[in-house]
Structure formats: C-alpha cells, structure tokens
Amino acid sequence: MTYNENMQHKKKTIGIIGGGQLGQMMAISAQYMGHKVITLDPNPSCPAAKCSDELLIADYDDVDALLKLAYACDLITYEFENVSSKALHELETCVDIPQGIRLLEITQNRKLEKEFLEECGVKVAPWKLVYGAQDLPERVTKKQVLKTTTGGYDGHGQVVLKSDEDLKAAIKLAGSAECVLEDYVNFSCEISVIISGNGKKFVTFPLCQNEHINNILHRTIAPALVSSEISEKAERLALAIAEKLQLSGTLCVEMFLTESGDIYVNELAPRPHNSGHYTIEACDFSQFDLHIKGILGEELPKPRLLKRAVMINILGQDVTKVEKINREHPEWHIHDYGKLEAKVDRKMGHITILTDDILESLAEISSLKI
After folding, report:
1. Are 335 and 348 in contact (CB under 8 A)?
2. Alpha-carbon dihedral 314, 318, 319, 324, rounded to 10 degrees
3. What is the pLDDT of residues 302-347, one digit of tens each?
4. What is the pLDDT of residues 78-88, one digit of tens each?
5. End-to-end CA distance of the chain
6. What does the alpha-carbon distance between residue 166 and residue 162 come to, in Å, rounded to a whole number?
7. In whole angstroms, what is the distance from residue 27 CA to residue 39 CA?
C-alpha cells in the first residue's frame, strides 16, 4: 500500500444528524482532519450545508433517509438531542453510533436523566414525577420549577412556581404532558464542564461560568471566577458521569453552584455545547476537535487554555450591531452561523474575546447593550 493509499484508508466518512451551528462546527473540525462529512437536515440552507461534502435534505425521523446516511458513512453523530432515538435504533445494526442511543434517550427525558444522575452519585435538586394536576401542591409554599419530561429547551415547557398565581399555568402544563417538579436551587452562579471521551479515556476543558437571560445563554466566562477547589470538584463530578456513560464524543454537564460550595447537576447536553464555543480560539483543541477525535476512538490530548476568554451570543435582535462591533473591535473573534433569517432570540452567531482582564472585557460587553 502506498503512502497516499494508507492515508486515504485512515480517513472516514462521518454522518452528522442536524445541520445547525453545532453540526457546522463539527463538520469544520472533521474537514480539517481530512474526513468526509455528510449532513442530514430538513433545511437546504442550514449552517452546515456550506461545509459538508454532501447534504441529505430530510426530517430527523425519516428512517429511509437515515438509512441512506448510515450506509454512506463509517459512523454517525448527532448535534442535538431532538433526534429521534426510535429512528436511530433502526440504524444501529448497519452503522457505528459512538455517542450511543442510550445517552440520547437519557437526555431526552428528564425523569431518566435525574435517575441516571442519582446513580452516578451526584447531587440533583429534590424532585418528583408529576402525572397530572392532582400531583401538584394545593398551595405554593416554596419556589419550585415544573418541567415537561420531554421536549423542553431554553425555558420552553416549564413553569416557575413562586406564588399561588402560578398554579394555573402549572395545572395547564401538567394536564398536557408528564412533568417533573423540582425544588428551586438558590445558586450563586451557573457553571458547566465540557468533557470529551473516546470510550475509555476522558478529558475536561476548563470550568466555565454562564449567565442566562430569558433562559437563553447570554455569555460564558472561561475559566470560571471560582476557586480551584470548586473547579476540581466540578471536574470530578463530570468525570464520574463520563465514566458511567463510557462517553465517546463531547458532553456538557450543566451545574448550579451555591454560596456554600454545593454543586447540583442541572442537566446534560449529549454533544458540544454553546458554553464551550470559547474553546475554538481559547484552547489548543476545541470541543469540536475532541468530539470528532472521541467518536473516532482516537487518543485524546488534555486541552489547555491558551488565554482567558469571554463568549457572548449574538441573537436575532443583535445582528445589526455586529458590523459596528467588527469595526471597533477587529481583535474580537466574530462567528456568523450563516442563518438566512434573523428572529428574536434566535442564535445567529457568537463573539469570543481573548483577554488578560475578564472584568474589563465584561464591562466593555455591557456597554454594547447586546
């Protein structure tokens, strides 16, 4: 076998289910490594369309299209958790799915997710299953959050119970779907660990600190402004989860940190995550690089933070400000996902700022009123 033939033999065709910005950035990392990418998405103008070798236009639960993808690829990955796990079971005998369908099923259902996290020995907020309005309290005596077990995201499918006035909306939600009722965690900040694995070895990125507005991630600070003890504790929790999963690819573990130093795991994202976007510029390997390496079963380096960073999301209502920001701050890294229509609260891109002074950069961002 010649050198060129040997190199070509090592390259893979990777199928990505989902062509949003996460699929786009996965595809870019895979392309840099010389692999071929075929993406499946119902939108012909999806962000990943321009950086895929081939685009299959089909719904995520279209079994015939998924089988076509499977037979054309060496392995398949997914960019978000709204992929049909039932449809993926149709593919598992004909293609490798390194992330696993079990991980998808766990993260698609809050009941299964909480049970799994408890098996891992990590703290979660006290919770109970709600089958209907009869399982709700008659009076609101403490702050709680009612969430549908499936389908919720960015604040959709949930009701915060702060007073008896909120029970009406809660009763309506509980009558429409199975739910979980969680005690509200009085946290000092939200943190997340991005962790990648190859099924055997697991590596973590620096702990980051997240701020949400209207349940949508607004900005991420890396590393988090917490003690080394808290960072190490959060990392151990993420490693325990990854080991239990025998994780392949990248996973985000979202957590609440309390004033007393307790850490509660809020939820898992079974793929690269918005809070890990800073790793593209700020680390020697990005969360997308290690996702691709991980699902291929390659050895994983421990990622290093090259410089402190702040990442801020650009939503639909902010896109008109980007041109001015680009003129005034050419040193900032602006990512445009290439979405054709800007809608309010739709993630259109992000900005990563590499900085020597986090607080100064945060003040600059605040002045922009994004």
Report:
1. no
2. -100
3. 999 999 999 999 999 999 999 899 999 999 999 999 999 999 999 9
4. 999 889 999 99
5. 56
6. 7
7. 8
* 227-to-57, 104, 192, 302 alpha-carbon distances in Å: 47, 32, 14, 21
Distance separating alpha carbons of residues 349 and 359, to the nearest angstrom: 23
pLDDT band for position 5 (50/70/90)?
very low
Tell me the two tokens of residue 51.
């950086």
* CA of residue 68 relative to chain centroid, distance: 26
Nearest to 189 by CA among 262, 251, 122: 262
Q: Please identify which residue in the block is written with the tokens 């909306």.
A: 169
Question: What does the chain come to in residues?
Answer: 370
Please report the pLDDT score of residue 152 as a whole number: 67
Which contiguous run of DSSP H or E holds residue 135?
none
| 3-class SS string, the chain | CCHHHHHHHHCCEEEEECCCHHHHHHHHHHHHCCCEEEEEECCCCCHHHHHCCEEEECCCCCHHHHHHHHHHCCEEEECCCCCCHHHHHCCCCCCECCCCHHHHHHHHCHHHHHHHHHHCCCCCCCEEEECCHHHCCCCCCCCEEEEECCCCCCCCCEEEECCHHHHHHHHHHHHHCCEEEEECCCCCEEEEEEEEEECCCEEECCCEEEEEECCEEEEEEECCCCCHHHHHHHHHHHHHHHHHHCCEEEEEEEEEECCCCCEEEEEEECCCCHHHCCHHHHECCCHHHHHHHHHCCCCCCCCCECCEEEEEEEEHHHHHHHHHHHHHCCCCEEEECCCCCCCCCCEEEEEEEEECCHHHHHHHHHHHCC
**Which residues does 366 contact at the CB level (< 8 Å), separation at least 6?**
none
Query: In 10 A of CB 271, how many CB atoms?
Result: 27
| Statement: the pTM of the whole predicted model exceeds 0.85 | yes
Can you say whether the dihedral through the CA atoms of 133, 139, 141, 143 is positive or negative? positive
Identify which of 227, 215, 228 has the alpha carbon closest to the alpha carbon of residue 266: 215
